[in-house]
Amino acid sequence: MTDTTEPYFDPEWGYATLGIRAAEPRTENMEHSASVSLTSSHVYRSAAEAAAVFSGQQPGYIYARFSNPTVEAFERRLAAMEGGEACIATASGMVAIQTLCLALLKAGDHILASRGLFGASINLFNNILSRFGLETTYVDPTDPAAWKAAVRPNTKLFFVETPSNPLMELADIRALADIAHAHGALLAVDNCFLTPVLSQPLKLGADFVIHSGTKYIDGQGRCIGGAIVGDAQRVGKDIYSYMRTAGPCLSPFNAWVFLKGLETLALRVRAHSDSALKLAQWLKAQPRVKRVFYPGLPEHPQHELARRQLASPGRGASAAVGFGGIVSFEVEGGREAAWKLVDSTRMLSITANLGDTRSTITHPATTTHARVTPEAREQAGITESLLRISVGLEDIEDIIRDLERGLA
Ligand SMILES: *Cc1c(COP(=O)(O)O)cnc(C)c1O
């Protein structure tokens, strides 16, 4: 991009404005809304220009495995929202986690991860990265002292998902960052459930933020993708070099969908959060519901931490506190009753996807966490009576009516 086409940017902008205005990829055609740059490579006016761009002496695009205008715009806009210096977009959220580990760790290193991770993340650590000499052990996300006790001399990475999936337990990001740094380890936070609208882990001391763009960033259940956000050296140089060579890159088309998604992220995440709180309050009052897991409820064990941590320190209306769009709950009657409730819905989508405009309902023990061993599931508190709802943007009254039938 040239100076004449670069749109105005103000680092003081609030999250809604950043999502709409930061890093608009404007070409000499002066598009108002970002166009998608679907080209695998770029050309040069001369051999000298090609050499200058390849060596980095002159800015310019080379090859879409590691440089594409639309992907770069998505990376810059997400970095601005997370308060990071650099961002690398990846083919999926899982690839973001895999890339982080393969780019920065080596055989013999140890990872400390929070219990209650996304199911595929557990499989990645236990069944794939373990084959390359990376060992992972799991710790209660709510107990910083347990992390301190579990650190080994070779611990290089803390990997935390907060809130946890599907039990919505919170980790104290600042406390874990301090413990990691005191032992020479780095902290990565999977910020998929909250998005930068509700949580900015880098500002609380985390070194990396991981995203699955597939969820709230897209927001309409269309594209798979992910991202790593962090500092200029580790993400901007080290992970970028890995991307350039190993190529786990995001498609420009998906980057364009995500760029559009970021424009409405602040608005959507607040609406998802408002409805989720209403649903959690309604579920709590149902006699056949044993327990509701939602950080916005005052009885949630970490409600106070949630109030402190889940507020944008930023400006503007988007700085409001919200508790995210995911609500989990246990019903009386084990798997049979849980499945019956799922099967009695007519509008809610029976799918494990989340962060969509459409509300979804899933039985974690037999879907997202089915490949996890029963012992590990038990330990993580994922019982047979547990259900998880990703609260969509339909009218909350309709979501409640759809669940009422099965709880009658
Ligand atoms: C979905 C998800 C992922 C993985 O992202 P994909 O884009 O599906 O690969 C990682 N972490 C969390 C918390 C998720 O919900």
UniProtKB/TrEMBL annotation:
Q: List its EC numbers.
A: 2.5.1.-
A Pfam family annotated for this chain is Cys_Met_Meta_PP
In terms of domain of life, where is this protein from? Bacteria
Q: Does this entry carry the keyword Amino-acid biosynthesis?
A: yes
Catalysed transformations (reactions): O-succinyl-L-homoserine + hydrogen sulfide = L-homocysteine + succinate
Q: Which residues carry this modification: N6-(pyridoxal phosphate)lysine?
A: K215
- Which pathway does it take part in? Amino-acid biosynthesis; L-methionine biosynthesis via de novo pathway; L-homocysteine from O-succinyl-L-homoserine: step 1/1
Q: Which GO terms describe its biological process?
A: 'de novo' L-methionine biosynthetic process; homocysteine biosynthetic process; transsulfuration
GO cellular-component term (any): cytoplasm
| Cited Gene3D superfamilies | Aspartate Aminotransferase, domain 1, Type I PLP-dependent aspartate aminotransferase-like (Major domain)
Name the SUPFAM superfamilies for this protein: PLP-dependent transferases (SSF53383)
Keyword line? Amino-acid biosynthesis, Methionine biosynthesis, Pyridoxal phosphate, Transferase
Q: Which cofactor does it need?
A: pyridoxal 5'-phosphate
GO terms assigned for molecular function? carbon-sulfur lyase activity; pyridoxal phosphate binding; transferase activity, transferring alkyl or aryl (other than methyl) groups
The EC class name is transferase
Q: Does the keyword Amino-acid biosynthesis apply?
A: yes
Check the record and name the PROSITE patterns matching this protein.
CYS_MET_METAB_PP
Tell me how this protein assembles: Homotetramer.
Q: What does this protein do?
A: Catalyzes the formation of L-homocysteine from O-succinyl-L-homoserine (OSHS) and hydrogen sulfide.
Q: Which NCBIfam families match?
A: O_suc_HS_sulf, PRK08133.1
- Which family, according to the similarity comment? Belongs to the trans-sulfuration enzymes family. MetZ subfamily.
Q: What is this protein called?
A: O-succinylhomoserine sulfhydrylase
What lineage does UniProt assign to this protein's organism? Bacteria, Pseudomonadati, Pseudomonadota, Gammaproteobacteria, Nevskiales
Encoding gene, per UniProt annotation = metZ
